[in-house]
């Protein structure tokens, strides 16, 4: 971390338009149920995490990704920029933007289907993107873009002294070479189970456990932080909010960063949608102060 400037966080990942349907009960296969509402909300794990990093800190956050040339693209760009995320390198490519069909039930739980669209075109990195990764303090990635691109970015980050935080979601088997370049892995308990022993090699491991909080395991030992009690409306984007806020606060040390991120993630569950529910720095600080 460069001591005489604010941290620079590069987020490489997806940006999607979320098609959010709310319903009391999710339909069984072959069944039709009546919904209670519908909204278009910008999302995507990459964009959500970039927005959370920027809103929770005011640090410099640069988003590396792609939108299509469709009707959703302008709104996806606008939400990132209005949240304080740098979009100077966000590509526009021919074809549709990424979309996610999301169903949220009465208990706030969701099911999501993502169609990659423009995100799937990120098969190589430009010189300008590589330059931002090399200059960043943290590179933050997920797995909604092609894995070889994530691996190339992590390799470049490691070669240039940039710390790599990976949220391996959606969980899938990854090349050893990618894991070797990851400094911090952030997973939920389901992903931790799926990835199993692979995670043993990572220096810093963070496991989120929803309402139960989050655990940390690293060179300094193990710790657990609780999650504040909140009224859950929709859990969509809560893990992304946790991860983005964690990346932005990492320089304060794992324990403080986890407490900050847990509060941010919990607040994100109190509103509908992904980017629409990501809290600002002042709200996280107030909620954290209220807990102590
Ligand atoms: O993690 C939540 C996100 O997953 C949604 O915003 C959706 O776009 C999918 O990427």
Automatic annotation (TrEMBL):
<keyword id="KW-0418">Kinase</keyword>
<dbReference type="InterPro" id="IPR002139">
    <property type="entry name" value="Ribo/fructo_kinase"/>
</dbReference>
<keyword id="KW-0119">Carbohydrate metabolism</keyword>
<comment type="similarity">
    <text>Belongs to the carbohydrate kinase pfkB family.</text>
</comment>
<feature type="binding site">
    <location>
        <position position="268"/>
    </location>
    <ligand>
        <name>K(+)</name>
    </ligand>
</feature>
<feature type="binding site">
    <location>
        <position position="240"/>
    </location>
    <ligand>
        <name>substrate</name>
    </ligand>
</feature>
<feature type="binding site">
    <location>
        <position position="236"/>
    </location>
    <ligand>
        <name>K(+)</name>
    </ligand>
</feature>
<dbReference type="InterPro" id="IPR002173">
    <property type="entry name" value="Carboh/pur_kinase_PfkB_CS"/>
</dbReference>
<feature type="binding site">
    <location>
        <position position="273"/>
    </location>
    <ligand>
        <name>K(+)</name>
    </ligand>
</feature>
<dbReference type="InterPro" id="IPR029056">
    <property type="entry name" value="Ribokinase-like"/>
</dbReference>
<feature type="domain" description="Carbohydrate kinase PfkB">
    <location>
        <begin position="8"/>
        <end position="280"/>
    </location>
</feature>
<feature type="binding site">
    <location>
        <position position="234"/>
    </location>
    <ligand>
        <name>K(+)</name>
    </ligand>
</feature>
<feature type="binding site">
    <location>
        <begin position="239"/>
        <end position="240"/>
    </location>
    <ligand>
        <name>ATP</name>
    </ligand>
</feature>
<comment type="subunit">
    <text>Homodimer.</text>
</comment>
<dbReference type="GO" id="GO:0019303">
    <property type="term" value="P:D-ribose catabolic process"/>
</dbReference>
<keyword id="KW-0963">Cytoplasm</keyword>
<protein>
    <recommendedName>
        <fullName>Ribokinase</fullName>
        <ecNumber>2.7.1.15</ecNumber>
    </recommendedName>
</protein>
<comment type="similarity">
    <text>Belongs to the carbohydrate kinase PfkB family. Ribokinase subfamily.</text>
</comment>
<keyword id="KW-0479">Metal-binding</keyword>
<feature type="active site" description="Proton acceptor">
    <location>
        <position position="240"/>
    </location>
</feature>
<feature type="binding site">
    <location>
        <position position="277"/>
    </location>
    <ligand>
        <name>K(+)</name>
    </ligand>
</feature>
<feature type="binding site">
    <location>
        <position position="271"/>
    </location>
    <ligand>
        <name>K(+)</name>
    </ligand>
</feature>
<dbReference type="GO" id="GO:0005829">
    <property type="term" value="C:cytosol"/>
</dbReference>
<keyword id="KW-0460">Magnesium</keyword>
<feature type="binding site">
    <location>
        <begin position="16"/>
        <end position="18"/>
    </location>
    <ligand>
        <name>substrate</name>
    </ligand>
</feature>
<feature type="binding site">
    <location>
        <position position="188"/>
    </location>
    <ligand>
        <name>ATP</name>
    </ligand>
</feature>
<dbReference type="InterPro" id="IPR011611">
    <property type="entry name" value="PfkB_dom"/>
</dbReference>
<dbReference type="GO" id="GO:0004747">
    <property type="term" value="F:ribokinase activity"/>
</dbReference>
<dbReference type="GO" id="GO:0046872">
    <property type="term" value="F:metal ion binding"/>
</dbReference>
<dbReference type="InterPro" id="IPR011877">
    <property type="entry name" value="Ribokinase"/>
</dbReference>
<feature type="binding site">
    <location>
        <begin position="44"/>
        <end position="48"/>
    </location>
    <ligand>
        <name>substrate</name>
    </ligand>
</feature>
<comment type="pathway">
    <text>Carbohydrate metabolism; D-ribose degradation; D-ribose 5-phosphate from beta-D-ribopyranose: step 2/2.</text>
</comment>
<dbReference type="Pfam" id="PF00294">
    <property type="entry name" value="PfkB"/>
</dbReference>
<feature type="binding site">
    <location>
        <position position="144"/>
    </location>
    <ligand>
        <name>substrate</name>
    </ligand>
</feature>
<keyword id="KW-0630">Potassium</keyword>
<keyword id="KW-0547">Nucleotide-binding</keyword>
<feature type="binding site">
    <location>
        <begin position="208"/>
        <end position="213"/>
    </location>
    <ligand>
        <name>ATP</name>
    </ligand>
</feature>
<keyword id="KW-0067">ATP-binding</keyword>
<comment type="function">
    <text>Catalyzes the phosphorylation of ribose at O-5 in a reaction requiring ATP and magnesium. The resulting D-ribose-5-phosphate can then be used either for sythesis of nucleotides, histidine, and tryptophan, or as a component of the pentose phosphate pathway.</text>
</comment>
<keyword id="KW-0808">Transferase</keyword>
<dbReference type="GO" id="GO:0005524">
    <property type="term" value="F:ATP binding"/>
</dbReference>
């Amino acid at each position: 971390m460069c001591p005489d400037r604010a941290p620079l966080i590069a987020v490489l990942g997806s940006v999607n338009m979320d098609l959010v349907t709310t319903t009391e009960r999710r339909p069984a296969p072959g069944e039709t149920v009546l919904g209670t509402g519908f909204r278009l909300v910008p999302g995507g794990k990459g964009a959500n995490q970039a927005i959370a990093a920027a809103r929770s800190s005011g640090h410099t956050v640069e988003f590396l990704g792609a939108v299509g040339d469709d009707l959703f693209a302008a709104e996806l760009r606008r939400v990132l920029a209005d949240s304080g995320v740098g979009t100077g390198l966000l590509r526009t490519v021919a074809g549709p933007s990424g979309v996610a069909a999301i169903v949220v039930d009465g208990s706030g739980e969701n099911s999501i289907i993502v169609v990659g669209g423009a995100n799937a075109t990120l098969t190589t990195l430009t010189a300008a993107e590589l330059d931002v990764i090399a200059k960043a303090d943290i590179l933050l990635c997920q797995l909604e873009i092609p894995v070889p691109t994530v691996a190339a970015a992590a390799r470049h980050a490691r070669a240039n002294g940039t710390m790599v935080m990976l949220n391996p979601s959606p969980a899938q088997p990854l090349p050893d070479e990618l894991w070797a370049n990851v400094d911090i892995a952030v997973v939920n308990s389901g992903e931790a189970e799926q990835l199993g022993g692979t995670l043993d090699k990572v220096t810093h491991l963070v496991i989120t456990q929803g309402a139960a909080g989050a655990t940390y395991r690293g060179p300094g030992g193990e710790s657990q932080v609780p999650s504040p009690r909140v009224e859950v409306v929709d859990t969509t984007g809560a893990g992304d909010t946790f991860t983005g806020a964690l990346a932005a606060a990492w320089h304060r040390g794992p324990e403080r960063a986890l407490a900050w991120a847990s509060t941010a993630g919990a607040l994100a569950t109190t509103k509908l949608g992904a980017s629409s529910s990501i809290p600002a720095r002042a709200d996280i600080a107030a909620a954290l102060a209220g807990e102590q």
